[in-house]
Amino acid sequence: MLRPSSLRLLVRAQRVQSPAFQHSLWSVASSNINLVPPTRALLWRPIAQKIALQTRLFSDDSTKKPEGDKEEENEKEEKGATEAGAEETTGEGEGTETFEEEDLEKVKERYEAEMKESKDHLLRALAEVENTRQRSLRDVENARKYSIQSFAKQLLDVADNLNRAMESIPEEKIKEENADESLIALYQGVGMTQKELQKIFNANSISEFGEVGEKFDPNFHEAMFQAPDETKEPNTISVVLKTGYKFQDRVLRPAQVGTVQKT
Q1: Sheet of 255-261: strands edge to edge?
Q2: 221, 226, 230, 232 alpha-carbon torsion, rounded to 10°
Q3: Taking a C-beta distance cutoff of 8 angstroms, is the pair 198, 152 a contact?
Q4: Does the keyword field hold Chaperone (predicted)?
Q5: pTM
Q6: What is the pLDDT of residues 131-169, one digit of tens each?
């Protein structure tokens, strides 16, 4: 009776195509049935190596395909790979093109928004610069135009004193035949000084305002009191206590007046 190891050797022999090699395996397997294990192992080792080599070669030959079929299969694989690559490339191209168009639109919109914002900032800056320039020119013009305003305002007290001096001397005493020569000289000197000061005021655009009968205007007049007067219209000036003065279009001092009270 054959042992399992001998059976396996015989099965492998069936797979080997060489008849001579199969016969040698059969004879060895039959003659080694009753050998002791060490001796059997020494005998089987080279045979097992040959069996393994032949079995691998036979397996490779059985799985090897004809060269024509292999070339055809390679061509099919290359064709399929080419088509797949073309489809993938086409898909990627379409996706890339779509992505690029969308990306360009977004970039365009962003740059248009930034350009609009920059233009708005530029226009605002230019407007601010123009406003600053106009304001500076106006300040320079006002400084030049009203440079003597404070000085002119200080001269108003001098004009008031001259007016009071002229009013303190009645004209009847000056016109009398036996009038005092010194009083006449003083009166004439104060009058000449008053006229000279008025010329200076006129030369520098300083003018008087506030007369009896004018309509009361809070922008130019300062009402000190109200009194009824049937001969005059209500809300008109009845008495001028202190003359008002203007320097060009600015009020140096409002006129202090009394107004007619409405009855």
Answers
A1: 221-228, 255-261, 237-242
A2: 0
A3: no
A4: yes
A5: 0.49
A6: 999 999 989 888 888 888 888 899 999 999 998 998 888
